[in-house]
Structure formats: C-alpha cells, structure tokens
Specification:
single chain, alpha+beta, 3 helices
Length: about 140
C-alpha cells in the first residue's frame, strides 16, 4: 500500500466521488471530485499532504460556493419555451358557442376547447375573439 503514490490515491478518491455523482445526480459530489483532482495534481508535483488537503478543501468549497448559487438561479428561472397548456396562455381564440361564466366553447390553436369567462357577468358571442388567461384542466378561462 505504501508503494502507491499519493496522487494515485487522490485520483481513486475522485473516481469514488464520481460514483455517487452519477447515482444521485448531486453536483456537489462532482465538485468534491474536482477538489480531489486538484489534490492529485499537487501530490504529483511533490507538495506535502497538508498542501494537498488544503487544495482539496479550498477548490471544493470554492466550487460549491460559486457554482451552486448559479445553478440554483438557473433552476428557478421559467423555461424560455412554453409548452403544453402553458403555451396556450395569452393566445387568442374564437368563440364557437356562446361563452359566459358557466361555460361555452372556443376554437384555440386549431382545436375546440371548453371555455368559461373570467368575469362571470360577461358573455362572449359566436365569432368574437377572446384572450386565454388561464387553463384549468380542459377548460380555457377567457376575457
């Protein structure tokens, strides 16, 4: 065991940290693995154990401190391309059957949808254009 250089142990540690990264999809393990690679590089250059461990800690903490907030900010952003019912919000539709607070039908994106008016006192007549403000189940809420 003493015949194996320290840099090899660091690389084994980096590979070992890569396993839970793949299994759990937690990017923190990848950042720790990069810290272990930094330790391996310094070990290969002949630095002592204290410097190797410090490099591991500093690189790992720096990556977690910098990359994690950036990743959190990106995951909190809404997707730029709306799909599904999200893509229908804000679209215009044509009333095919009188729409009021209790129901009706519209033609939206080439399909006939159930619809109801957002304002229950308002009614939209056949042929009138309306805007979709929300989708609740299979019903479009229109104004």
């Amino acid at each position: 065991m003493n015949d194996i250089d320290a840099w090899v142990w660091w690389l084994i540690g980096a590979a070992a940290l890569g396993i839970p990264l793949v299994m759990t999809a937690m990017p923190e393990f990848g950042m720790l693995a990069v810290g272990a690679v930094a330790g391996a590089i310094l070990a290969g250059l002949g630095f002592g154990v204290v410097v190797q461990v410090l490099a591991f800690v500093v690189v790992s903490v720096a990556l977690i401190g910098v990359v994690r907030p950036i990743a959190a900010r990106h995951s909190a952003q809404r997707p730029r391309l709306a799909t599904g019912v999200e893509a229908l919000k804000g679209k215009q539709a044509v009333v095919t059957e009188r729409v009021d607070g209790s129901g009706g039908r519209i033609k939206l994106a080439g399909e006939v949808w159930s619809a109801r008016a957002l304002d229950v006192d308002r009614a939209y007549e056949v042929g009138q254009e309306v805007d979709v403000v929300e989708i609740e189940g299979a019903t479009a809420i229109v104004i």
